[in-house]
Amino acid sequence: MQVTICRLRQKLIQHGYRINATRGVGYTISKGGAA
User: Fold this and answer.
1) DSSP of 2-30, one letter per residue?
2) C-alpha neighbours within 13 Å on the C-beta side of residue 30
3) Residue 6 domain boundaries
4) Can you say whether the dihedral through the CA atoms of 5, 11, 16, 17 is positive or negative?
């Protein structure tokens, strides 16, 4: 059970990192466009 939770948490962290990276890129582009 704990192994499954560990794997699930790892997947969530990876997915969250991907979302944050995409948001960061979009934010940088919009910031540069606004400036």
Assistant:
1) HHHHHHHHHHHHHHHHHHHHHHHHHHHHH
2) 6
3) 2-31
4) positive
Q: Given the structure tokens 């704990």, which residue do they identify? A: 2
Which amino acid would we find at residue 1?
M
Q: How many CA atoms lie within 13 A of 34 on its CB side?
A: 6
What is the predicted pLDDT for the residue at 26?
A: 79
> What letters, b where the CB count within 10 A reaches 16 and e where it falls short, cover 4-18?
eeeeeeeeeeeeeee
Number of domains composing the chain: 1
Above 70 in pLDDT, residue 1?
no
Determine the residue type at 7.
Answer: R
